[in-house]
UniProtKB/TrEMBL annotation:
This is Adenosine deaminase. Residues 11-324 form the Adenosine deaminase domain. Keywords: Hydrolase, Metal-binding, Zinc. It is an enzyme of class 3 (hydrolase). Its cofactor is Zn(2+). GO terms for cellular component: cytosol.
Amino acid sequence: AEYDAFAARIPKISLHLHLTGSVAPDTVVDLARKHDVPLPAGRDVYDVDAHADLDAFLRVYDTVGEVVRDADDFHRVTYETLALAARHNVLYREMFLSPPAHPHTPYPVMLDGVVRGLRDAETDHGVVCRLIVALHRERDADEGRRLVETVIEHRDEHVIGIGLDYAEVNGPPERFRDAFALAGRAGLHRTAHSESGPPANIRTLLDDLGCTRVDHGYHVVTDAAMTARCRDEGVPFTCTPVSSDIGRYSGSGDGTHRRIVEMLDAGLAVTIDSDDPPMFGTDPTHDLRVLGPALGYDPAPLRRMLGHAVDACWLDDTDRAALR
Ligand code: ADE
Ligand code: ZN
């Protein structure tokens, strides 16, 4: 009970959350009606069937992308997810924006709505948010590079980095070397998902794509040399216990979060977030609470992980110091 209260109370830094995956079910239904998009009949939008595997989940994610369309929609969903975050004591978030998931929306329109949403949320709730534009790794490399060009063309101070999402098996990271190099030359920070492995992909992220973080990265612990390197270099891993337990990446779907425990025991810089909160039935407090049994209900690791998130975030040192 003491641990659970601490999980609610501790300030939070959120580094792994997808805007498209954070839309409340009622909002999905509302926007589907607004834009006349049919939703699957006779079941909840975020049915557990959505989680049968990553592909099934990503098709639901794409459905949400279909209904979040105009600038007002983007304003609304951004504002709503940040207002909720503030209730869980989230001070600062770096949030993934997945333009390819919203095929009906030009990038500048999306950006306008999202930026207004995050400004309003900061004014009303005090939560600060910056953006990571995620490239769709199942699409070809040219499309990724063009998206980076678009980001640079519509440069906005709120967009501070790029990422790589969707299924790793269908989009090896080396395919995006040019896109990431272009982003690097433009001064954008870089991260990428590596959820299912193999461990060699982590080396590609660090050495070839210029990533300064790894999203998920559970398989690092299957490679002793890579684990030692990441510990020595302090490479941050943005882990998502609930989505990865359901997806069987961080353990075996049994709630032990075995991989995350191994990463912490190996001295890696682990941070904790929700990935896609309503789609996986979680929130920033719940993410910490589900780790209770794995951590022996000790609040000390939660403090350490908060420290890792402060170190791992892409704020400049003055703003970073304000979070300590
Ligand atoms: N998009 C949203 N959540 C994701 C995840 N866990 N893996 C890949 N792409 C995603
Ligand atoms: Zn993710």
